[in-house]
Amino acid sequence: MTDDAPDTAADTAPDPSVVAATDALVAVPGVDPDKARAALVDVPREPGAPKPDPILVADGVVRRFGGLTAVDVDHVEIQRGVITALIGPNGAGKTTFFNLLTNFDTADSGRRTFDGQPIDEVPAHKIANYGMVRTFQLTKALSKMSVIDNMKLGATQQKGETLWRSLLPFIWKGQEADIEARAEALLDRFNMTHMRDEFAGTLSGGQRKLLEMARALMVEPTMVMLDEPMAGVNPALTQSLLQHVTGLRDQGMTVLFVEHDMDMVQEISDWVIVMAEGAIIAEGPPQSIGENQAVVDAYLGGSHGAPLDLDRKL
Ligand SMILES: Nc1ncnc2c1ncn2[C@@H]1O[C@H](COP(=O)(O)OP(=O)(O)O)[C@@H](O)[C@H]1O
Ligand SMILES: [Mg+2]
User: Fold this and answer.
1) At 281, phi and psi to the nearest 5?
2) How high does pLDDT run on average in the chain?
């Protein structure tokens, strides 16, 4: 993202409203985040470990590019109501696996279920109807739209409601008012109300990430998928972003994120899944991952892998 504006002084201001705004939000029904996290204690620390309450399950997922097997995941389960980090050296297959999970890429083989329902045949734009949503980078086209219009688009784009709009204009009008109110409430939660009518392209790197997250929430998801939420973010805004991510979990959402930043992984994840050469090689709580020999080998062995900071909080 070379066209990012630098993070401004406004980003560095303390953000006391984050927690309060999160508290005001409606919880996802039937999810107790504290119980969900506590239940991880008994989960074996091994690849493919079964979870007490999995929301997303993948089996035998393989993706090849020519002769290269980018992903070959035997089995994985994502626990509902917790924050799971997907980590691994560069080229491990994290982004490819993430795209397969959200149906933005098609696996050569394998099955996935979300909330017990098979999602293999569900088109990417309909996945949000199941409650699973991913963030999208602010593209050039979206940069030329206002922040509030980006938010409103978040509601329609992923839910495919354009048909309703054409067939039922009167119902749609009511919905549009709802959508606008929802967008404004989310902008308030993310402290972006003052940017409401600005072009999204004028936002700083950190504010873009906030907008991407806020836009994803327009569809009222139960699971949020984030691909490198900290990439390009000024460290001054990091704490605020972290609070927003933990806020999603505390509201009962399931969070899965791909991340290089080990500080973030250690600080906010409840469970870590490690990929190397397309496969899952380790799982466990963040504190245990650095002690895992397979993980150490994978990071040290990768010729272009980012170093894993094994000393952190271990
Ligand atoms: N569209 C593609 N065409 C060919 N090879 C790809 C493509 N996407 C990814 N790869 C290869 O698949 C492997 C996994 O890539 P990726 O999923 O991006 O890894 P990570 O996100 O863990 O860094 C890499 O070797 C990468 O070069
Ligand atoms: Mg990647």
Assistant:
1) -110, -15
2) 84
Residue predicted with more confidence, 233 or 133: 133
What are residue 86's DSSP bridge partners? 258, 273
- Separation between Cα atoms, residue 54 and residue 16, nearest integer Å: 33
CB-based burial of residue 227 (10 Å sphere; 0-12 exposed, 13-18 middle, 19+ buried)? buried
How far apart (Å, rounded) are the C-alpha atoms in residues 266 and 189? 25
For residue 246, the CA-to-ligand 1 centroid distance in Å is 29
Question: Which ligand lies nearest to the CA atom of residue 231 in the structure?
Answer: 2
By the 8 A CB rule, do 313 and 289 touch?
Answer: no
**Quick count: other Cβ atoms within 10 Å of Cβ 292?**
19
In this prediction, residue 303 has a pLDDT band, given cuts at 50, 70 and 90, of: very low
Domains and CATH numbers, the chain: 42-120+256-302 (3.40.50.300)
CA of 228 to the centre of ligand 1 (A): 15
| Confidence (pLDDT) at 9 | 42
Residues around ion ligand 2, judged by CB within 5 A, are 94-95
The helix (run of H) or strand (run of E) holding residue 149 is helix 147-159
Instruction: Kindly tell me the sign of the dihedral angle through the C-alpha atoms of 259, 265, 270, 275.
Output: positive
Which residues, judged by CB distance below 6 Å to any ligand atom, belong to the binding site of ligand 1? 65, 68, 70, 88, 90-96
Residue 163 confidence (pLDDT) above 70: no
